[in-house]
Design goal:
By secondary structure, the protein is of the alpha/beta class. It folds into two domains: 2-221, YjeF N-terminal domain (Rossmann fold, 3-Layer(aba) Sandwich); 239-480, 3-Layer(aba) Sandwich (UDP-N-acetylmuramoyl-L-alanine:D-glutamate ligase). 38% of the residues lie in helices and 15% in strands. The chain is built from 17 helices and 19 strands. The strands form two sheets. An eleven-stranded mixed sheet has the order 2-10-19-18-17-16-15-14-11-12-13, with helices on both faces. The chain has an eight-stranded mixed sheet with strand order 1-9-8-7-6-3-4-5, sandwiched between helices. Strand 8 (180-184), helix 6 and strand 9 (202-206) form a beta-alpha-beta unit. Helix 15 (431-444) packs across helix 16. It starts with a strand and ends in an 8-residue tail after the last helix.
Length: 488
């Protein structure tokens, strides 16, 4: 059993893949082995996260997830805990493994209660697991979910919090908010994107003793993004070794967005950063960052640099998009560049055509921008973020970063990646501009679009995760790549 923490590339398997792995394993293992192993794993983790808990409520559903809970109850009672077991199933209708678990429960003289009574030191949610397919829990199950959430006790969910969709990270209106989730056999994508990160709490994995080759026989649905390797720059390198980034944006009233992107690119390692403001009457120098070279857009040679386009661009960015897209430069398209492209079929065709010239393109939309590009609603995009990101990547033949909780990085012919870093402190104006600049710096250093996006997104989120408590996280400070309280 392992606690899942950011940093390691891990495969994520959806419901269908997980069930196929489970079916293959049951063909070679003695009957009921997987459920017994699962119950033991749940009981062990329960002791680890709440070692002093005495009264433990185990809410069991009618299927195999409930059977895992019944098995856990047997061990916890043997170890001296007072277990209160409630079960929505019945021996005459439950799956075979769960029927066997219920018989073992009787032999252990564990009583199944009609309702949970009293206070509890730990609640174990074994109601649905991967059986949650966004069907709204009803009746007694819904009542138990509400009682679990209102108990004030730590909550351990078995495989998935009830009400969380394993593949998409969507939750039903009534769902379990877990403190910990023990994912069994495989890690599921929904634990790491959309509402999944909030619902699941701390995620643990137990592969139930299966050999590694049994878990890698099927290609995963996605991977968890891995921490990038920080390479030491050679002493003999120079600014030309790390490329030029040109930031195009900053329409009247929005110059700050372009400067944030430029500052981020600078602090993420770009050799030089040039800023072409669409409001060309505003600034000639950024006194806080004189390293940023402000230049008239018409003087920039896009063929010799990486271009980050759209940050604070407003409608005026439309005037330069054709030139940017026709250039061989690696390009990051963000914010208003995406909004303009979404309304212009010719520009959409120009984005797609870049791939035929082997020109690198990275799109960095949030959900609403992605919805405009797809002709959908933001709600539809959020309902299946993995599919939305992959559809965008295929449609525009480029790398896509679908920003949000558990940002998705997708690219044609690549298994998508879900990013595990970042938190709600990034939900403030300008942080997306910072990310665009960071992606640009990685492209300028020579990385592929997919690798540049993976590295920048991880680092962007990791900055928020390590930000000192009590110090506001602003885009301005985020662009510096560190918490500098003297910068104000």
């Amino acid at each position: 059993m392992n606690k899942v923490t950011p940093g390691t590339r891990r495969p994520l398997h959806g419901v269908d893949q997980t069930r196929r792995i489970e079916q293959t394993a049951t063909q070679v293992l003695p009957a009921h082995t997987l459920m017994q192993r699962a119950g033991l794993a749940v009981a062990r983790l329960a002791l680890a996260i709440a070692p002093h808990a005495q009264r433990i409520w185990i809410a069991c559903g009618p299927g195999n997830n409930g059977g895992d809970g019944l098995e856990a109850a047997i061990h916890l009672q043997r170890w001296g805990k007072t277990v209160v077991v409630t079960w929505l199933g019945a021996a005459e209708s439950a799956p075979a493994d769960t029927v066997a678990a219920s018989l073992r429960l009787q032999q252990a003289e564990v009583v199944i209660e009609a309702a949970p009574n009293g206070d509890f030191d730990l609640c174990i949610d074994a109601l649905l697991g991967i059986g949650s397919q966004l069907r709204e829990p009803q009746g007694l199950m819904a009542d138990w979910i509400r009682q679990i959430n209102a108990s004030g006790a730590p909550v351990l969910s078995v495989d998935l919090p009830t009400g969380l969709h394993a593949d998409t990270g969507q939750t039903t209106a009534v769902h379990v908010d877990a403190s910990h989730t023990l994912s069994l056999l495989t890690l599921k994508p929904g634990l790491f994107t959309a509402q999944g990160r909030d619902a699941a709490g701390t995620v643990w994995l137990d592969t139930l003793g299966l050999a590694p080759d049994a878990l890698t026989a099927l290609a995963p649905t996605a991977y968890l993004n891995a921490q990038p390797i920080n390479l030491i720059r050679p002493h003999a390198s120079h600014k030309g070794s790390y490329g030029d980034v040109a930031v195009i944006g900053g329409a009247p009233g929005m110059t700050g967005a372009a400067l944030l992107a430029g500052t981020a690119a600078l602090h993420a390692g770009a050799g030089r950063v040039l800023v072409g403001l669409l409001d060309d009457h505003t600034l000639t120098v950024d006194v806080r960052h004189p390293e940023l070279m402000l230049r008239p857009i018409q003087t920039l040679n896009f063929s010799a640099m990486t271009v980050v386009c759209g940050c604070g661009g407003g409608q005026p960015v439309a005037a330069v998009l054709s030139e940017v897209l026709s250039s061989p430069a690696p390009v990051v398209l963000d914010a208003d560049a995406l909004n303009v492209i979404a309304t212009d079929n010719a520009l959409q065709a120009a984005v797609r055509a870049r791939s035929t010239r082997k020109a690198v393109t990275v799109l960095t939309p949030h959900a609403l921008e992605a919805a405009r590009l797809l002709g959908q609603t933001a709600l539809a995009v959020q309902s299946d973020r993995l599919t939305a990101a992959q559809t965008l990547a295929q449609r525009f033949a480029c790398t896509v970063v679908l920003k949000g909780s558990g940002s998705i990085i997708a690219s044609p012919d690549q298994i998508p990646v879900i990013n595990p870093t970042g938190n709600g402190r990034l939900a403030s104006a300008g942080t997306g501009d910072v990310l665009a600049g960071m992606v640009g710096a990685q492209l300028a250093a020579g990385k592929t679009g997919f690798d540049a996006a993976c590295q920048a997104v991880y680092q962007h989120g990791a900055l928020a995760d390590t930000w000192p408590p009590g110090i506001p996280l602003t885009a301005q400070l985020l662009a510096l790549g560190r918490c500098d309280t003297t910068y104000h």
